[in-house]
Predict the structure.
Amino acid sequence: MYNSLLHRPKTTERFTTLMEMYEKNYVLIRLLAPELKQMVQGRYVSSVDGAMPLELLVSEHSRYTSTFNLTYRFSDSPEKGRRDREPDLAIRLYHDSRSCEVMSGLLPEGRIEIRRTRDLDEGRRLNRFLNKWLSYCIRQGHTFSGQSVEALPKDAVYCVQN
């Protein structure tokens, strides 16, 4: 007799772990930016004494998703090169399924990672980094809450002093 519990595909546990990571990242993003869905497109900066400024670039909202970048801001000029923004992660938040995943990113070791959607190990690595980084930013006191969500120019930078 064939026992399906003994012959589970190797990817099942990795997939489950990745989905749990997506859910945890969703919770952390909602703590960091509780009003993300209402934030207009543009750059938002969270400043905390003794910590690097954290920048959130809202690029797109649709009915079920929000797409944004999260990075540290190493200089005051938003027009500097990628080296002034590290890590720099492109993130998609799914409002309906309450999950959040890294789409691509520049990691601290200087590698640009474009995630292949079917590579579970790569997805786990990028999303685990996001999970640890979000936890760290929240512990430092970063937040994007309480900001005005008025329709201002797209190239404007919105700042919050925490």
Notes: The chain has a mean pLDDT of 78. The chain has one domain: 11-142+153-161. The two ends are 62 Å apart (CA to CA). Residues 11-142+153-161 form one domain.
